[in-house]
Design a protein that fits this description.
- Keywords: Membrane, Transmembrane, Transmembrane helix.
- The chain is mainly α.
- The protein folds into two domains: 30 residues; 156 residues.
- It is built from seven helices and no strands.
- The chain is elongated, with a radius of gyration of 25 Å.
Length: 210
């Protein structure tokens, strides 16, 4: 192992440590060497979800701001969470599909057998990359960091619950849009692969085809 590889690995580990400290420990409220983490914001977040589920009438009586439709009922909130879970499962399947496709294309692009093809293999990687990127960009979950931002901007429980529910609905819309975009790309990719396979078979075995 040369010095470049050692420096590269060390730099990656250092960067990962800095990102973890800045984006996780500090933002969530868990600085290094903390004696006791603050679970207050997490308890308040869970309390808001519990209120949405157990007291739908109380939330329906909340007067929304002007131009706002208010909160969902308890049953609607349960359906929202169910649909969100279903879309996340489908996105995971598509993410696996595109990860396999991208890995195969990258291996093919850097193999010695495709040197005569020029930039065509790299172009295939570039074409397929946005479909995987869309899934990954929308895979971000609504965690305690997002809840902390909501809690910092509002003090009233009803307002906090409303903003958290709106964040769930926006997260669902983003994941559905990413799924449709990635699904269309997967369908076109499968059809293109079938067409290319048929053309290759017709050229390789001309006696079989009429």
């Amino acid at each position: 192992m040369d010095w470049f590889a050692i420096c590269f690995i060390t730099g990656v580990w250092t960067l990962e440590g800095i990102v973890k400290w800045l984006c996780i420990d500090r933002l969530v409220g868990l600085p290094h060497f903390a004696m006791a983490p603050d679970f207050g914001p997490l308890k308040r977040r869970l309390h808001a979800y519990d209120q949405m589920k157990r007291h739908p009438k109380k939330f329906c009586e909340f007067v929304p701001a002007e131009g706002d439709d208010g909160l969902l009922s308890g049953g609607q909130h349960e359906i929202l969470l169910g649909v969100l879970k279903k879309v996340e499962a489908k996105n995971a399947v598509l993410a696996t599909f595109w990860s396999i496709v991208m890995a195969a294309l990258v291996a093919f692009a850097f193999s010695s057998s495709c040197e005569r093809l020029g930039v065509f293999p790299i172009s295939l990687v570039a074409v397929c990359a946005p479909f995987l990127t869309a899934i990954l960009l929308c895979a971000v979950q609504l965690d305690q960091i997002d809840a902390n931002r909501t809690l910092a901007s509002s003090c009233e429980d009803m307002v906090v619950a409303q903003k958290m529910q709106e964040a769930l609905m926006l997260d669902l819309l983003k994941k559905e849009a990413a799924f449709r975009f990635s699904w269309l790309g997967a369908m076109f990719s499968v059809l293109a692969a079938l067409v290319l396979s048929g053309l290759f078979a017709a050229r390789a075995f001309p006696d079989i085809w009429p």
